[in-house]
């Protein structure tokens, strides 16, 4: 099956995601607030783009059940942004003015733009494969973090871990995988190859997203603009 195949081929990259210092510190509860705040602000922006890509997947779906799934997922992404992310942003005391002053990072813009370009310009099966790692990687990391932090009381990032280890999110991940497998099975070789490339690119961006939060990535050219 397509999903099993691309997941196996991503094994080393997935391991690197699990072992990234951002995620090991997130798991240990030692991740500093500055890095997590950077991540949450960028991720709130990412989720708006992800939601748009999902809404476009819903519009382009050839199967009504798939259209429902993608529309619900588009809504869930924005709902997460308005609860989980907005909750942390409030906890960190970031005002609307603070947020307006924080630039979207190169990686966040790259990942967001990649998803939206795929949504608008690539075949629908390629779009399904591009959004799949957004579900699968988070579900995988979320459940691992839940296992690793099971006995920990008052984990500072408990709400984040709970969101992505939720059985409902695992169910969505299964749905996204099933849709992608069905589309891969019924398309041509060239499209299947493009699906694999989109899956790998999105998974690379997932690693980069955590890495960019760890380093609090900025635009190297920012100082030359007024
Ligand atoms: C970067 C990224 N990928 C996936 C998810 C899960 O939807 C998220 N919140 N952020």
Automatic annotation (TrEMBL):
Keywords (A to Z) from UniProt: Hydrolase, Thiamine biosynthesis
Claim: Hydrolase is one of the keywords in the record: yes
CDD domains cross-referenced by the UniProt entry: TenA_C-like
Known pathway: Cofactor biosynthesis; thiamine diphosphate biosynthesis
Main enzyme class: hydrolase
Protein's job: Catalyzes an amino-pyrimidine hydrolysis reaction at the C5' of the pyrimidine moiety of thiamine compounds, a reaction that is part of a thiamine salvage pathway.
Protein name: Aminopyrimidine aminohydrolase
The reaction(s) this protein catalyses: thiamine + H2O = 5-(2-hydroxyethyl)-4-methylthiazole + 4-amino-5-hydroxymethyl-2-methylpyrimidine + H(+); 4-amino-5-aminomethyl-2-methylpyrimidine + H2O = 4-amino-5-hydroxymethyl-2-methylpyrimidine + NH4(+)
Family: Belongs to the TenA family.
PANTHER family: BIFUNCTIONAL TH2 PROTEIN, SI:CH1073-67J19.1-RELATED
Ranges of residues in domain Thiaminase-2/PQQC: 10-214
Domain of life: Bacteria
EC numbers, comma separated: 3.5.99.2
